[in-house]
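Hi team, as promised in this morning's meeting, here are the two structures we talked about. I've kept the exact order from the run log so nobody has to guess. The first one is mostly here for context; it's the second one we should focus on when we meet again. Sequence first, then the predicted structure tokens.
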Amino acid sequence: MPLSYEALPTEIARHYQRGGADANGQSPERALSDGAGVPCRHCMKIVPAGQEYLILSHRPFPAPQPYAEQGPIFVCAQECKRGDTAAFPAFLLSDSYILRGYSDTDRIVYGTGAVTATTDIPDAAETLLARQDVAYLHVRSAQNNCYHLRIEKAG
């Protein structure tokens, strides 16, 4: 099954890059990257050393509801090109991530969440997305639960 690795949508990234309020109603904070461990959720690349990036609270759901988690993410401060959706993202640096399924009503599908080795994410994603009750997946940090990207069936 072909997969689509969905970065933060460009319109949302531009909102933040232009100083728009985050999920907490605050302006994004600015910091300088050390070149390691600062993955932009829009271009899906590590922010280069010395480049400014934004730290903000993001809710990757269309509306607030009990399962609509929010938390900190990083985005390049300057406009960047959205990451390729067909390729497995190289910016996933950790050994493992939480992979979690959601329904078409944006609710967690119980029993789908698991800490998954980074190399196993594509196969685990295919298995979960083959289920009728799973519409899409989130990839989140296993250490901090930070949102990284969304995985869907391609096409």
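And here is the second protein, the one for discussion:
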Amino acid sequence: MNTPVIATNALTKRYGPHAALTDVTLDIPAGRIVGLVGPNGAGKSTLLALAAGLIRPTAGTIDVLGNRPAADAAQLARVGFVAQDTPVYAQLTVADHLRLGEKLNPRWDAKLADERLRQTGLDPAKKAGRLSGGQKAQLALTLAAAKRPDLMIFDEPVAALDPLARRSFLQSLMEFVADMDVSVLLSSHLIADVERVCDHLVILAESRVQVAGEIDDLTAAHHRIVGPRGALDQLPPGVDVVAADHTDRQTTLIVHNTAGAPLDLPGAEPIGLEDMVLTYLHRAEGLAAPILQETAR
């Protein structure tokens, strides 16, 4: 059995009285592009910082590639991390960044880095502070990939990019994954981007994991069911209600079928990834999901 790329058990991180993460238990398989989705303040950046070894848990455990995060130099070399806003050194040139990367990373792939500069059109002599947002993102991606890591971690790297730059960055990311056999953990609040590039999903809200798994499996297991009021009070075993909306005449449910067998109920229809994510986020915040209310009208 392959070692999970990330495994946590009751992982908790607090900042004073504030809980950034609470009892997070995850087992993420290797070889996936994992989308970490949730609203601002959900704990996404905290989880990524814990995985990168930048901070330590308050309680619980986290293993990355079978070891404690940032346990030693060898472990650090196996993880590439790109923080929010794809930070680079404004006064250093693009070439300076590559030379620095080569000195700091024992697995540095200079050929890959040079090829990426040519493909993206980055000028080696240009200072990073004069690059556009998309160019900075491409430089950060090149630096992370040329480490030849086993895991690449991205904290909302495309949030500030325009649509063309975002598409270019995600295309480059998919190419790297295909060529390098690397696992990726990518946080984002852009569900369309997650749907385009990711095959595994973790939904975080209110500091807790709401649901996690392969995207195809999750979307296949979530359904909207519409029926007369009272007709949906008894559901088969393994069919869990995620959200419910009632009118005088009608009930609308979003359910998660964990039974394994296909859901065979009148009025049941599959829902898309965006509706599924929004339902869990609204539930975590104690709100009625708009998709349910729209269906019921």
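Starting points for discussion:
DSSP finds ten helices and 13 strands in the chain.
The two ends are 49 Å apart (CA to CA).
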